[in-house]
Amino acid sequence: MKRKVMIAGAALLVALLAGAALFLIHGNRSAAGRRWIAAQLSAVAGYYLNPQLSLGAVHYQYPLMAVVDDARLVADDPARPGVSVDIFVAKRVTLEMAQIPRRGQPLRIRKLILDHPEFRAVAVSEKDSSLVGYSHLLKGQPAAARPEVKLSDVFEIRLIEVVDGLMVYDPRTPGAKPMAIDRINLHLEAAPATGGEAGWYGMDINLERKPVFATRFAGRLNINTMVVDMLPLRLKLEIGREQDHYLPPQIQAFLKEHEVSGDLLVEVSGSVQTTNWRASSLKAQATLAGGHFATGDRQIPVERLEVLWTMADRRGTLEKIDSDLLGGRLQGTGQVALDGAMDGRFDVRLTNIRLEQTLRNSAGTEGAYKGCLNGQIGWHGPLTAVLTQSRGGGTIRIDDGRLDQSPILSDLLALLGKAMRTAGMESGRASDTAELMFTFEGDRVRFSRINVVTTLAALHGHGDICFDTRLDMIFNAGPVEKIQSMLGKVGALVGRMTDQISAYTLSGTLKDPKVGVAVVPNL
Questions:
Q1: Of 57, 102, 314, 510, which residue is the least packed, with the fewest Cβ within 10 Å?
Q2: How many helices (H) and strands (E) does the chain have?
């Protein structure tokens, strides 16, 4: 896809340069000459491009420079017959040739300057993501687009500058603001070919919107192989509602819905093959500070998050993920084979995670549940089939908890609690515990052991939670279970006897769990 964009851009550039060549060869200082040259520029662009090129005044500066005012590329809007869209506008385009073009030789350009250019990418409709004008930019297959012709054979340029540019992306999504990045300044200078390989261009980009974001990129691009060498790329971004318009509208909607915020710093170095990203070799580091994520009545505050990712030999490695969040710590590592099904393996450790910090508690209240969570999780399988071919497992323990309002178990514990309070058994200070042992088996998480002890009751059980949110679990629960947990071996003997008499089932879905009673479940 990126190569097609480069080819399309190259074709547009070739069209402009070919017209400019006519201007430099035949142009003169007369108004009639300038009008003739403007017509030739438009005609040459019309040969290559579907959108229509319109030009304002054309100025010739002896001997090899042309300046075009109000360059405009206009495309018909498929969604609104009879209406057109300006997909590219530039206040001024300055073109300086290195020499008059000769047959069989590249167009050698010393300098191309775009003054206040605007690039407007507009989706055809909410359901059709193809871009007006750009998705059908070319007519046929110009020489630049034929596989046997290298882009470096078509033109050779020494300097491209963008002065105070604007980039807009509008997916035509109702209620979403178009992405708009203004004040873009770009300096792209050609680097000499090395080792006999042509097509290398040096790039130097510095874009700032303090305090919203700052981008620094230095590297080079080979227009023939589409390989990017980064030395490195640095992006600093302040995520928050007031800054959302700098991001694609789809991301804006997600950030707004989940109240995402924080200060993000990303640094990337290495070599990226844009036509075959899996063969890239790079190192990427990301740091998030003061982060926040919310969904419904729950939230995840993140004090610090650090991620280190490397790629080499068609393998990606999560060297580390390390985060201070929810009063505790999350750490992890992983690997992914960047071929075929993309088999991966990830290991995560959770330490002293405070469950109550996930709630948006009212001031001075404890919240619906609490607890200190510790655990470790190992997962492996193909990333292309996570929901059907997951493997691995883990353990989780919760101490100093209050679990009677916890997800999944709340209905079951509420039923038990009501019965026990009716019998005159009251609860004391909440200091519940829970132990869970589980495995990933294809399309579900299978719990082989669930032991929960609360101030009202105790339960133990097993069962499945499917990735499509279906529940299929069974528990033995009640005051006898509480006694069993307190009496050790004797209690275990009593428990085995009562297990044969009655149990509770948990079915339905995570959003709508249903509690039932199973009689003599093991007979």
A1: 102
A2: 7, 25
Give the number of other CB atoms < 10 A from CB of residue 370.
Answer: 23
Question: pTM of this prediction?
Answer: 0.71
- Cα separation, 80 vs 78, in Å, equals 6
Q: Tokens for 230?
A: 């980064």
Q: Domain span at residue 46? A: 1-190
Q: Mind listing the pLDDT tens digit for each residue in 407-451?
A: 677 777 666 655 555 444 444 455 788 999 999 999 999 999 998
Whole-Å CA distances, 190 to 20, 158, 303, 359, 381: 20, 5, 43, 55, 44
Distance CA 447, CA 439 (A): 7
pLDDT 10s digits, 127-147 = 887 888 887 776 654 444 444
From first CA to last CA, the distance across the chain in angstroms is: 61
The answer to whether 113 and 85 are in contact (CB under 8 A) is: no
CA distances from 65 to 3, 109, 518 (A): 30, 10, 88
d(CA 399, CA 186): 56
Tally of structural domains, the chain: 1
295 belongs to a structural domain:
no
| Interstrand relation of 432-442 and 444-453 (parallel, antiparallel or unpaired) | antiparallel
A 10 A CB-CB count for 87 gives 21
Residue 65 corresponds to which tokens in the numbers above? 């420079």
In angstroms, the Cα distances linking 199 to 160, 189, 202, 407 are 15, 12, 10, 58
- Give pLDDT tens digits for 366-405: 667 889 999 999 999 999 999 999 999 999 999 988 877 7
**What whole-number distance in Å separates Cα of residue 10 and Cα of residue 89?**
17
Q: Are 164 and 183 in contact (CB under 8 A)?
A: yes
Residue 248 resides in a domain:
no
Query: Tokens for 249?
Result: 């509208």
- The CA-based angle 330-383-311, given to 5 degrees, is 70
**DSSP letter string over 257-300?**
HTT-EEEEEEEEEEEEETTSGGG-EEEEEEEEEEEEEEETTEEE
Q: What is the DSSP string of 360-407?
A: -PPTT---S-EEEEEEEEEEEEEGGGTTTSEEEEEEEEEEEEE-TTST
How many CB atoms are located within 10 Å of the residue 347 CB? 17
Let me know how long the chain is.
523
d(CA 118, CA 181): 10
Beta-strand relationship, 200-209 and 52-54: unpaired
Decide if 75 is inside a domain: yes
Does the residue 73 lie in any domain?
yes
* DSSP structure string for 145-160: GSTTS-HHHHEEESEE
